UniProtKB/TrEMBL annotation:
Keywords linked to the UniProt accession: Heme, Iron, Membrane, Metal-binding, Mitochondrion, Molybdenum, Oxidoreductase, Transmembrane, Transmembrane helix
UniProt pathway: Sulfur metabolism; Energy metabolism; sulfur metabolism
Listed GO MF terms: heme binding; molybdenum ion binding; molybdopterin cofactor binding; sulfite oxidase activity
Compartmental location: Mitochondrion intermembrane space
Protein name: Sulfite oxidase
Keyword Ribosomal protein: no
GO cellular component, one term: mitochondrial intermembrane space
Residues included from the entire protein: 119 to 584 of 616
Main location: mitochondrion
Cofactor(s) the protein needs: heme b; Mo-molybdopterin
Entry's EC annotation: 1.8.3.1
Domain of life: Eukaryota
Signal peptide range in chain numbering: none
Length: 466
């Protein structure tokens, strides 16, 4: 912008308190945000950028990256920065600059933080999702951790201690095969009913792997702690990924779940027999089988017991369900229960939406996955080729687990006759778990403002010879 004064980055840096006025930069602009402070919806967090570029923070709080906010900012412009923001410098400010390189196979729904799912059609071909194809759900930049420096912080009843990476590796190695699913999986179908806040996941924000490392029980026993005797309501896990204000990603599970799973909760350093990739928690991740992805904390830094849930944003103000009439004006996150175990679900992965089948095809091979939380195994998957009028049972592929400790998904496949009186139809799948829980038939009845927990019948439209 011509005609405005120019300032150096040092000039801007000197304006970092209310007394000196608060300046920030964005691209080549210098902005005085002192007056704007009271009206900032995010409160004082904006002060983190005082005297600096606001871009790294917006890269983390990416909701800021929209035209409306740019316009508000422009009204506060007081000048230009002398040195035009070179690409290099922008890069230096980018908190995501050290993120790993990802497989081109993954389809991102957000680049920073990185969130991506594999193509659904490759997902159900393999029981153990290959590490490079495993969906990624990050909320923050991926931490850079050196194993020589890594130590798991343990705050146990009566003692504070830690366990170094090498010590973890020397403990008896146990494994669990478990499915990770984001509560936002299939949010794209909810968005079609009514807008929701959240990433536009299709049906592949789910993957399955074998995780190895010591069990939680072995780790606690090493320090003479018997979890059955711990007098707390929750066990809390914290990651090494931090928000700009320094608070880490965190999650908790009720102590009774931790007790019943103590031998199968794995403090994992291996994923499918390999070192855990950085995107999935390198060097150490807690794998809690049968619970929602959000509680399977990556880059595990600290474990402690508490009388209350993790205070993290993602435990308290996210990953909760609401009835369809709750909106952003009347929502009260304190009044809803945190998601721990997911409801029964399934999805068709092949054919994909919009597939045009051969003109004279009489049958179609349908493939997909089914999964239920809490170790509840899948006993049946019903699939329809006529929009849900008639159903055929799919062939369930064995997942090597027992009905009540089934932490892995069940892949399935079925050949269906296509209705011959139409050249387009809707394929539908719905699963039943060992507790005879079934999937609801519509998205409408379970719609919620965060777009989580969509386990409605999964539908895929196909045509024939169009
Ligand atoms: N752990 C940390 N430390 N930080 C995170 O952002 N995301 C959670 C969980 N663990 C997250 C985390 C969420 S919401 C999900 S769904 C899973 O990790 C995704 O695991 P994945 O990226 O290995 O697929
Ligand atoms: Mo998630």
């Amino acid at each position: 912008i011509e005609g405005l004064p120019t300032y150096s980055r040092a000039d801007v840096a000197a304006h970092n308190t209310v007394e000196t006025k608060i300046w920030v930069t964005f691209r080549n602009g210098v902005y005085d945000i002192t007056q704007y402070l009271q009206s900032h919806p995010g409160g004082n967090k904006i002060l983190l950028a005082a005297g600096k570029s606001i871009e790294p923070y917006w890269n983390v709080y990416s909701a800021h990256k929209n035209e409306e906010i740019y316009e508000v900012l422009e009204t506060l412009r007081i000048g230009n920065i002398t040195e035009p923001d070179p690409k290099k410098e922008r890069n230096r400010d980018d908190p995501y600059r050290l993120d790993p390189v990802r497989s081109p196979l993954l389809i991102p729904c957000c680049e920073k933080p990185f969130n991506a799912e594999p193509p659904a059609e490759i997902l159900t071909d393999i029981f153990y999702t290959p590490n490079h194809a495993f969906f990624v759900r990050n909320h923050l930049p991926v931490p850079c951790v050196k194993t020589e420096k890594y130590a798991l912080q343990l705050e146990l009843p009566g003692q504070k201690t830690c366990l170094k990476y090498e010590e973890l590796r020397k403990m008896p190695k146990k494994s669990v095969t478990a499915t990770t699913m984001c509560a936002g999986n299939r949010r794209n179908e909810m968005i079609k009913v009514k807008p929701v806040k959240g990433l536009n996941w299709k049906a592949a924000a789910i993957s399955n792997a074998k995780w190895s490392g010591p069990s939680l029980d072995d780790v606690l026993k090493k320090f003479k702690v018997d979890i059955d005797k711990v007098n707390s309501n929750y066990i809390v896990f914290e990651g090494m990924d931090k928000q700009p204000d320094g608070s880490p990603y965190g999650a908790s599970i009720p102590i009774e779940i931790a007790r019943s799973l103590k031998d199968v909760i794995i403090i994992a350093y291996e994923m499918n027999g390999a070192i855990i990739p950085r995107d999935h928690g390198y060097p150490v991740r807690v794998m809690i089988p049968g619970v929602v992805g959000a509680r399977q904390v990556k880059w595990l830094n600290r474990i402690y017991f508490s009388s209350e849930e993790s205070t993290s944003h993602w435990q308290r103000n996210d990953y909760k369900g609401f009835n369809p009439s709750v909106d952003w004006d009347n929502v009260n996150f304190d009044k809803s229960v945190s998601i721990t175990e997911l409801p029964v679900t399934s999805a068709i992965c092949e054919p994909v939406e919009g597939t045009d089948l051969e003109k004279d095809s009489e049958t179609v091979t349908v493939k997909g996955y089914a999964y239920s939380g809490g170790g509840r195994g899948i006993i049946r998957v019903d699939v329809s080729a006529d929009g849900g009028k008639t159903w055929t049972e799919a062939n369930l592929k064995p997942n090597g687990q027992t009905p009540y400790t089934s932490y892995a998904w069940t892949l399935w496949e079925v050949d269906l006759s296509l209705p011959q009186d139409a050249d387009e139809t809707t394929l539908v799948a719905k699963a039943v778990d060992i507790s005879y829980n079934v999937q609801p038939d519509s998205v409408e009845g379970i719609w919620n403002l965060r777009g989580v927990l969509n386990n409605a019948w999964h539908k895929v439209n196909v045509t024939r010879g169009k």
